[in-house]
Structure formats: C-alpha cells, structure tokens
Amino acid sequence: MEIESKRIRKKKLTAVRKKRPSQKVQEKKARNNKRPNHKRRIKRKKHPVKNYLKEFIFAISLGVVLVIFICSFFLTIMMVHGFSMIPTLREKDQVLVQKTTDLKRFDLVVFKSGNGYTQIRRVIGLPEEKISYTNDTLFVNDQPIDEKFIIDEINESQRNGKNFTEDFTNWTLTSASVIPERYYLVLGDNRPYATDSRHYGLIAKENVIGKVTMQLLPFDDFKVF
Questions:
Q1: 198 with 96: CB under 8 angstroms?
Q2: Is the whole-model pTM more than 0.85?
Q3: Peptide linkage before 144 cis (omega within 30 of 0)
Q4: N or C: which end of the chain has fewer CB within 10 A?
C-alpha cells in the first residue's frame, strides 16, 4: 500500500511539473505579448500626426483659395502699356489696382477708354470743378495747386523755354463751365506726349475700374501711391 501511494504521488508531481511551463517559455510569451502592444502604441502616435498634417494642409489650401477669391473682387494686377505716365510709371511695369470708384485728386486711375483699351492716368479735375492751366500752373476753381510729382520736369521744360503742360481750360475741352457730375478730367504725367482728356475728353465714372495703390514690378522700383 505504501509503495502504491508513493507511485501515485510521483505521478501527480510529474503531471504537475508537465503542466507548468518553463521559465524560458514564460519569458518568450511575455516578449511576444509586449511586441504587438509596442507596435500598436507606435501606430497610435503616428496616426494623430498624419491627421494633423492633412488638416493643416487643407486649412492652408482653403485659406489661399478664399484669399484669391475675395481679392478678385477688390484687387487686380495689371501691366502698364505706353509712355504717357513717365516718369511715374513706365512700359511693362506691374501695378496693384484697388477696385473702387471713390477717387481723389492726383489718384492714378485705371479706366476703359472709348476705344476699349485699359489705361492709367492721373485724376486732375473732379466733378463740379473748374480746371485750367496757365504757364504750367494748375488752377482748381481759380486757386493754384502744386503738382509736386512732376516739379522736376516742369522746371527742366521751362529752362528750355517751353511749358510742360500746354495752357487749356475745361471749357475748351467740354464747352461747360465746370466738369459735369460723374465725370473726371485725367492727364498723363508725360504731358508733352501723353494721350489723355485733352484728346479723348472726360472719363465717365462707370468706366472707372479702380485706382493704382502700389507698383509691384520691377522690384527695384517698388513703391506705394
């Protein structure tokens, strides 16, 4: 009986030992269990970064599109053609134009002339004003106004015994005592050679595109008006 009971105990101990995995197996399982978790943690970290980059790029792209769309209603870029605005602007200069019809004296205005061409000239006379030039002096409602933007050209021309701007009045241009409402008198800065209101008359407000606010190109001549 004692011998049989010993055999039974040995069998139980052997069975118990077989059921318990070795330490190496346990360590291997532990490593295998850790690896997937580690990979999952890495994936969780990378996923938010990708989403953030996608959202950031989308926001930037949307912002650029909106800016371009909004600016198209208020701003435009155009190239200067001709030599009527020398020395202020020259052929092929690029300028930024603000779309508006609210003009002041000496603004550089962009408008469509009668022949359909887009031109840039300087506003000299406003609605309901009397304009005249005498001996290179601008008179607005009989009051002299300095034209500082062409003072060097005026002095040079007078040293040569000539007027930079020929004498005229709005009466000689329109047969009216003052400029009518919703009309402007415009001149080129290159007065002896410019084509302007002295040739094609006053410009109507509905033909005005806007005013030049900045010269963009060439970079060396960048300026704000």
A1: no
A2: no
A3: no
A4: N
